[in-house]
Amino acid sequence: MLRTVAIGVASAVLVAACASPAQPATPSQGASDATAPSAASSGGPGRLVDIGQGRTMYLECSGTGSPTIVLVSGLGERADNWQITSRPEDADRAVYQQSARVSRVCAYDRPGTETTTASGRAGSRSTPVPQPTSGTAAANDLAAMLAASGEPGPYVLVGHSYGGIVIRLYAAAHPRSVAGLVFDDALSEDLPTRLTSEQAADLEKLNSPAVQGRPADAESVAFDVIFPEVRAIPSMPTVPTVVLSADRKVISAEDIASGKLPPFVTQSFADALWSAQLAAQDALAAKFPGARHITATHAGHYIHVEQPKLVDDAIAGVHVRAAHRASGQRQIRLCQVSSVGRPPQARSRTQVGRRPWATARTPQDRQNASSSTVSISCSSSPPYSAALSTTKPGNPSVLIAIVFAACCCSLV
User: Is 279 exposed, middle or buried (0-12, 13-18, 19+ CB in 10 A)?
Assistant: First the structure.
């Protein structure tokens, strides 16, 4: 599997550290029906979705459930990238296959993406567009494809590398369609700000099709376009979020010594890139209050390939929280109960919490207590209010039941 990396990995020698391009670990034949074909297959169970203007997008989906999980690949990667692992023992834990066991899951090809199989390169199954492209264009394509596909929202969006830029731009434009976010060592606009201008230019060059040996029409982006796009995002939806960050260096000393990287990739460049990447990941996580930031990943840039269970668990956790929020259950945070019908009485400490009619001292008191009108007003978040008012002569237990039902049976 060819891997293009939006934080610095561009050589096949680095790719081989994740999984052999010719023989990626793929699911066994005994996997469930939700298991998709491996990256080495020639096609897939997908379909072409007409998004208008003479263009189609390749989409493949499996499983059932809601919210739908949408996997968004890194720069230059087809949908297949979510279907492989680096170790044979993890073959059945590939993210696409495991997500299909959790809910409905979809992956797709952006224009200009590709994969490498034992038979050679296989290009994107989506209609080509001029390159370089922009993050906004990619997010718009995602929105058009999802709308035309009939795959229902809301969505748990999972973005690897450049895919993290795409899902952020989509979420900002369509906040009501997003139920959760998972960032898989996602590219951050803070990365180049922690490099010198020369280092940032070299990083961009390292990700270009020319340096990576990809076709001229392969997917490419310009840093001076995509980073301003995400910096301009006014706000993001408040949804369950997990940020996973690689903890293994992008470029090692062995990689540099191999002589297979461009001359500008020096040890100084690799060290600066790694330091900038760590800081940029912290900054990315800080943009999402309440997000869980997982840094002990024991993986390089392709966490979903090297440690699929970690990504599977992150997606499943976000999905559970998102599904719970979408279930319509609400927590009533504050309830105010008022009663009229008899004046309040001072009660001794032993009387607090006792039934009101148990403290009535005269027949009239008892009548007032048993025929009191009880009003209940409650509020919660998301905005919700309920008001009850009842008069129930002779049966105060009904009032207690109403109070319990109104204030104690709603859950988050």
Answer: middle
Residue 377 to residue 387: CA distance in whole angstroms: 4
CB of 243 within 8 A of CB of 292?
Answer: yes
pLDDT digits (tens, 9 = 90+) for 328-385: 544 434 444 444 444 444 434 333 333 333 334 444 544 544 444 444 444 433 333 3
Using the predicted structure, report yes or no on whether residue 105 has a pLDDT greater than 50.
Answer: yes
Q: What angle do CA 371, 377, 382 make, to 5 degrees?
A: 155
Burial readout 352-369 (b: 16 or more C-beta within 10 A, e: otherwise): eeeebeebbeeeebbbbb
Q: What are phi and psi of 69, to 5 degrees?
A: -95, 130
The end-to-end CA distance of the chain, in Å, is 43
* Same domain membership, residue 202 and residue 144: yes
Q: Do 292 and 394 belong to one domain?
A: no
Domain match, 290 and 228 both: yes
CB atoms within 10 A of CB 336: 11
Domain count, the chain: 2
Matching residue, tokens 């039941």: 401
DSSP summary character for residue 139: H
Q: Could you report the per-residue pLDDT of 148-174, keeping only the tens digit for each?
A: 999 999 999 999 999 999 999 999 999
Is the pLDDT at 194 greater than 70? The verdict is yes
Quote the domain boundaries for residue 109: 12-326
Closest C-alpha to 185, from 245, 230, 242, 250: 245
Final residue of a structural domain among 326, 355, 383? 326
**Average pLDDT of the chain?**
78
Nearest to 166 by CA among 90, 241, 73, 97: 73
Same domain, 313 and 351: no
Any idea how long the chain is?
412
Cβ atoms 78, 111 nearer than 8 A = no
Among 240, 105, 242, 245, smallest CA distance to 182 is for 242
